[in-house]
What we know:
Blueprint: E1 4-6, E2 14-18, E3 23-30, H1 35-52, E4 55-65, H2 67-85, E5 89-96, H3 101-112, E6 118-122, H4 123-126
Parallel strand pairs: 3-4, 4-5, 5-6
Antiparallel strand pairs: 1-2, 2-3
Amino acid sequence: MNDFVIENTKSTPYLKFGYEQKKLIVKGESYPENSYSFYEPIYKLIDEYFVSFDELTIDFQLSYINTSSIKCLIILFDKLNANYQNGKNIIINWHYDEDNGFDYDMGQDFKMDIDIPFNFISISDEE
Length: 127
């Protein structure tokens, strides 16, 4: 399978679903005009991916997320969590900027509702 990539725009994050790397990257800001239509292809990829694969690492680095994107990410986390509960090996890495309390707090909120291992990684630790 070929990697699925959407380049970032001013209002949408960079998305890369790397099959060989078993990794999904979501990076940037997320406030598209229609969040559901933006994230819907990822929902479908997740469903298809876990038919053949058993592990996935997701790297999130989102500096801003609007309300409709939050709802879409909740759908994504619910899909991931269902697969995790069915025995799939899933890890979430939530990259955050220590100077921006919003992105860390958002990750904490998402973590509370799922069972998946959730790693918090400071962007300053990566530099």
